[in-house]
Amino acid sequence: MKGHPVFIAQHATATCCRSCLYKWHHIEKEKELTKDEVDYIVNIIMEWIIRNSKRG
Ligand SMILES: [Zn+2]
After folding, report:
1. What is the C-alpha to C-alpha distance for residues 52 and 18, in angstroms, rounded to an integer?
2. Ranges of each domain in the chain
């Protein structure tokens, strides 16, 4: 699944892991994500995919 778009998007948007979420999105590592935070993260990923899926 190395080239999966979601995987690429998660790294491109720093939503791949809790360390990146903390560092770039200021979401604390230890706490559980709220629904709003999950929505926020999903939106970032979806927008990145849409923006990067336009080809030639
Ligand atoms: Zn990460």
Report:
1. 24
2. 5-52
- pLDDT tens-place string over residues 7-17: 999 999 999 99
**Listed residue (39, 36, 12) closest to 24, CA to CA:** 12
Which token pair is 21?
């979420």
- Ligand 1 centroid–CA 56 distance in Å is 30
Predicted TM-score (pTM) above 0.85? no
Q: Which residues contact 31 (CB under 8 A, 6 or more apart)?
A: none
Structure token digits, residue 33? 């994500």
Distance (Å) from CA 54 to ligand 1 centroid: 25
